[in-house]
Amino acid sequence: MTQRSISLADIAEKIGATLVTKLVANDDQLLVSGISTLELASADKVTFLANPSYRKQLATTQAAAVIVHPDMQDECPVSALVMNNPYVGFAKLSQLFNNLPTQAAFIHPSASIAASADIAEDVSIAANVVIGEHVHVGSGTRIGANSVISDHSIIGEQCILHANVVIYHDVVIGNDCIFHSGCVLGADGFGFAPDAGQWVKIAQLGGVRVGNQVEIGANTTVDRGALGNTQIGNGVKLDNQVMIAHNVVIGDNCAIAGTAGIAGSTTLGQNCTLAGGVGVVGHVNIADGVHITGMTLVSKSIKESGVFSSGTAMMPASEWRKSATRFRQLDDMARRLKKLEKNQ
Questions:
Q1: CB 71: neighbour CB atoms within 10 A?
Q2: What is the pTM (predicted TM-score) of this model?
Q3: Which domain holds residue 25?
């Protein structure tokens, strides 16, 4: 893989930073070949400081330049790329050095493509891909090995489907989306009606609708709707091993971390975040701008923006056992307190 080199001046322009050099001749034209941490960066690497916990490492860094907030500019011992949000600067910088292999447009001879499928001329289709009837795949999209796109689904332009992605029938995906290996869109929702000790399956008649610039992590599942569609808004980011149940609606620009799960027919507003392990019950509504901390169980609707948590913080096991005993006693204690107040 060819190593790329970029000048500090070019980096500053592309990430929207102000380059402050250390008065070395032609320092702005210094070429760097990659990104590293503050601690490990060498003289041909760029690094960043976004978390104050790593402030001590700034004084000793050997990097060519550091992306820093204006407040930290004077403490930087090397050239500084100054911007208000260094973490966004790091994100943009990482794209300049992205080492994802490029692929020319081609269709592997082992791919199975239905005659009715509409495939743009510059699509890349790897080995053993299966594409069903009346599927549309837009310009510039890449489909990894062993992936399956079932009948009547639509994949937009400039999408990347990594190996072993499964798109069921009647799934519509926008442009510039990324799907990591093992993710599944459009599997049946968990719908069964109890009948005399047995379960009667409810046919899942809806589909899945995915907006633009969505990224879905490895082994994440998005179920199809029972009647209407499960909907994933523009700019949504889903981590690995996330579960999205049938008829869930996720608003634009939400981010959901690994192992979180949302039960059926719940609506998540725009610009929300769910940390790892969050569980959301079905049939509730969550307002815009809600942020839910790790391992929280959301058991009812949230009507206003803010940060929400549930559960107890970690403590030594012996203390936790005492607290658990107290929890079991709360109902009895409440009744006794109410009785005492009544007798006063």
A1: 9
A2: 0.90
A3: 6-96
